[in-house]
Amino acid sequence: MKAAVVTFPGSNCDEDTVIALERLGVEPVRRWYKDTDLGGAEWVILPGGFSYGDYLRSGALAARAPIMDAVEQLVARDQLHVLGICNGFQILCERGLLPGALRANRDGKFRCTWEGVRVASAPSAWPGFQVGQSFRLPIAHREGAFTVSEQELDRLFQEGTVFLQYCDREGRVVDEAANPNGSMGAVAGLARGRVMGLMPHPERAVSQFLGSEDGLEFLRLWLQGR
Amino acid sequence: MKPEEVGLTAQEYDEIVRQLGRTPNDLELGLFGALWSEHCSYKSSKSALALLPHAGPAVVTGPGGNAGVVRLEGEWLVAFKVESHNHPSYVEPVQGAATGVGGIIRDVVAMGARPIALLDSLRFGEDAPSQRLLDGVVEGVGNYGNSIGVPTVGGEVYFAPAYAQNPLVNVMCVGLLRQAHLMSASGARVGSGVYLIGQPTGRDGIHGASLLASQDFTAEAEAVESMRPTVQVGDPFTGKLLMEATLAAIATGGVEAAQDLGAAGLTSASAELAYRSGVGMELDLDGVPLRESAMTPYEIMLSETQERMLLVVPDDQLGAVRAAVAHWDLTLHRIGRVIAPDVLRVRWHGQVVAELPPTVLSGGCPIRPLDRTAGQEVVRTASPAVASPDLDEALILKVLAHPDCRDRAYIYRRYDWMIQTRTVFGPEHDVAVLQLRETAAGLTLAISGPGRWAAADAWAGGAGAVARAVLGVMLQDSEPMGMTDGINCGNPDRPAVYGQFRRLVEGIADAASAFGVPVTGGNVSFHNETEGRAIWPTGIVGVVGRHPHPSRPWADRVRVPGWRLVLLNPAPRPDLGGSVLAHALGQLGRYPAPPLEALAATYPRIQATLRALAPEGFAVRAILDGGLLLALAKLTLLFTDVGVRVKLSDDDPVARLFSEEVGQVVVALAPDQLSRFAQQAEQAGVSWMELGETVEDPVVELAAGSGRWRLRRDQLRQAWQTYVHG
Q: Could you report the per-residue pLDDT of A23-76, keeping only the tens digit for each?
């Protein structure tokens, strides 16, 4: 099984993502943003970081990189499972492969904390995820507040695009005022077709001694997509 | 141009003329102004720094390079150093702090090491403007570290009026490298090309070293305003590309020497590199990529534009190095070559505009001889002993709520402390523990330097900082391999300040020698002084230890009731001098001089005693800020669901609870470990006293004499987590 990890200039979670995939017995294929193909991989992860320094808008420039043309084409042909983590999620939204946008956190500050997330809708392409299942994963971002219009948010919930929501230790969803970054609908991640994006970092939660192994389980379920 | 315009004295100018045998031209004078500045030459500090011990079994590279290097395991080395960016952070906190982080990261990269951890040590005043400075500094440290992808795994922050107009921002960076990639600035060989990579050079930061970092501040707001253009702007995005490009270039094996461009920019980088390599250098400034048009040679040579690195590459290695750099979208710009004679020759538009011997530029600055009498008056000045107030709940809560004690989450949650997935113990612990994929051994990192302890007796503060950081590392079953020191003082031309400086360095040196931990590099920042009011002498010590089992750190929390609580190496007559309680009461007193020989003998015994216990059967914490009481609270209810019941037999329970005398250790023992512990401690000769036990309710129950006190977790947490910010 080959899974590509794309490095944009400014990506900084690419190495951690490669290591997590290796832990799961997957052969990681490293791709550079200038590449025009994914090296035959049918799985791709857009890792976290500060692509292009987040200087225009987070993910805005990376969304226009050559490798993203290849990603979009393979997605259109249903030949690729995509996971965008943090900055990768922002890139997917900027590219229009996922709806909405990630805006500055409620307090305008970077935040690095452990958080709970809960599966709100089981994504059709990933049968392993069960509604109500929760994971303890870290977040580390300044721009993670999911934002769409109210009508669009309702529609995303109805059609099952809202995949993950922030939750407390008991698995209860925490509202906009209490979730860590002010996301509308407490949205932590989306999945539409074979494209998934989330703000938390599963690749960091790969050992008990690092705080949690839930990220390993999360990535294992992602790799079981169909 | 006059000497004072570049920060030189008339005597120094005369010395330059004498050593050169001629008068320097204006450009040459500017180069001297930068390199003979306090910031670059260490002219006031060098003779005192010679007191520090540098040798040790793990040392690979001592002071003098971009960072110290110790051997961790096999071919794997650790490069580390602390550096200050105090003055820029006062003038422009976000950019000042950010460029400080960028600078120390590049120092570690220039050794050939990949940065894997940052620790920040911050000092601020207690007034409202200081809170804004803190917010900006934290923003700046986070902006750079988070973006470049190096975790900030630990740190410390303290507050006192003495830092109000002189905040301190010291950052330590730790990097990991293979022996084969170890770089030095002394490797340049005659005939090789000199190349610049990174940002195009602009007019930013000119005179940063000579005027901003090497002078006191005045009280006028305009004066601070006028310094703002001397602060550089950080670009962590380019910093990330530069870091990757430099490491990739070094990995080709084709780089002879690397030197980052920091204070005094190209002048310092080229002269230092030539001086340390024992060669000369020809620079052609027309090869330097510029961001602005019509820059003069003076501006090009002294610009402190960030994110630039100088590489020395022999011609036959050029192809591989160029390709490695180009992958990261950067260009290798040839700006000169290494020559044999002792001369730094600068050409511009075909003309030689400066021609100076590196041995004079970098090695010729007159060094102030060590004055062994200065500072004695500090020792003779007796500070009154701190009298213990009555013990009550309000007193306990006052200490927990003190800014020097309170929860630092409001700072560190703005830092990415877990990227690179090595952080086993992050910033909510007293030391950081990193698990490495490259080696079985991990790293334990401690940083410490409470100014409170040095305020009345700088020697005690310096020795205490070392004793505290070494203990922190050893309480993680780790072996200290080396340390770095960041010295921060006022204006060294004032005898009282020079005395504080010398005593501070002596304290660090004496403790480093006593514990056998070498100092492999560091930084001195003087002129932390406004209108004649200097900061407390502040020596920040960072210790790097080898952890034998990083994925199973020794616990520093207890989750079960019924564990026995003991105090190891209790102070015979606990003294409140220099403590947070004393600070909060407004009668700081004098921190008791650490008994170094006794501590050096005791630490290994404490470690051996704990090592003999079942690993899951104990938890341990050193007594730090806030004393025994805060150590007990952090061991239990501030982080877990159990409380403590403690009975003190002391005549003075307040001193016992809040004294911060270094070397005292609290241990919680599973009931089945107590007899083994007692036996081991006796065998090792470690003194200890029983304190009590952990209890099911999350409360602190204290009994002393006829007094009884009971505090609930919500009271304690509320006090501990009350933020001015966030």
A: 999 999 999 999 999 999 999 999 999 988 877 788 889 999 999 999 999 999
Give pLDDT tens digits for B416-473: 999 999 999 999 999 999 999 999 999 999 999 999 999 999 999 999 999 999 999 9
How close is the nearest chain B Cα to the Cα of A215, in Å? 12
Nearest CB to A210; choose among B241, B329, B424: B424
Identify any residues that bridge with B487 across adjacent strands, giving them in sequence order: B524, B539
Look up A93 and say whether it is catalytic.
Answer: no
CATH number of the domain enclosing A192: 3.40.50.880
Distance CA B51, CA B54 (A): 9
A224 touches chain B (CB under 8 A): no
Q: How far is CA A29 from CA A6, A41, A79, B7, in A?
A: 8, 7, 16, 55
Please compute the mean of the pLDDT values over residues B92-118 and round it to a whole number.
96
Give the model's confidence band at B725: pLDDT under 50 very low, under 70 low, under 90 confident, else very high: very low
Q: How far is CA A89 from CA A47, A112, B77, B81, in A?
A: 8, 17, 36, 36
Alpha-carbon gap: A204 to the closest alpha carbon of chain B (Å): 6
The confidence score (pLDDT) of residue B724 equals: 46
Question: What is chain A's Cα-based Rg?
Answer: 16
Cα first-last separation, chain B: 49
Cβ-nearest to B421 among A16, A52, A110: A16
Task: Give the separation between CA B343 and CA B320, rounded to whole angstroms.
Answer: 29
Cα distance between residue B234 and residue B69, in whole Å: 26
Question: Which residues on chain A are in Cβ contact (under 8 Å) with B137?
Answer: none
Selecting among A13, A81, A86, A93, the annotated active-site residue is A86
In angstroms, the CA B687 to CA B663 distance is 12
Question: Token pair of B77, please?
Answer: 């080395």
β-bridge mates for residue A11, sequence order: A49
Sorted by sequence, the CB contacts under 8 Å of residue B586 that are 6+ apart come out as none
Instruction: Count the helix, strand and coil residues of chain A and give each as a percent rounded to the nearest 5.
Output: 30, 30, 45
Distance between CA atoms of residues B518 and B521, nearest Å: 9
ipTM: 0.97
Residues in CB range of A182: below 8 A, 6 or more apart: A105, A106, A107, A145, A176
Does residue B211 register a pLDDT over 80? no
**Domain that residue A68 falls in:** 2-222
Q: What is the pLDDT of residue B598?
A: 98
Alpha-carbon span B501 to B714, nearest angstrom: 43
Q: What is the pTM of this model?
A: 0.96
Between CA B330 and CA B321 the distance in angstroms is 11
The tokens describing B138, both together, are 């934290």
Q: Sort strands A81-85 and B432-434 into parallel, antiparallel or unpaired.
A: unpaired
Question: A-chain residues within 8 Å CB-CB of B418?
Answer: 112, 138, 140, 204, 210-211
Q: What's the pLDDT at B378? A: 56
Please determine, looking at this structure, whether the domain spanning B54-361 carries the CATH number 3.90.650.10. Answer: yes
- The residue ranges of every structural domain in chain B are 54-361, 418-720
Return the CATH fold of B418-720.
60s Ribosomal Protein L30; Chain: A; (3.30.1330)
Q: What is the side-by-side order of every strand in the sheet holding A162-167?
A: A27-32, A2-7, A43-46, A81-85, A195-198, A187-192, A162-167, A111-119, A134-141
DSSP reduced 3-state for B93: helix
| Contact criterion met (CB below 8 Å) for B297 and B27 | yes
Instruction: Evaluate whether B140 touches B94 at the Cβ level (below 8 Å).
Output: yes
Q: Which residues of A touch B148 (CB under 8 A)?
A: 12
Residue A115 and residue A215 in contact, taking contact as beta carbons nearer than 8 Å? no
What's the rounded Cα separation, in Å, for the pair A140 and B414? Answer: 9
Q: What is the mean pLDDT of the segment spanning B553-559?
A: 98
Q: Does A55 touch chain B (CB under 8 A)?
A: yes
Question: What total number of domains does chain A contain?
Answer: 1
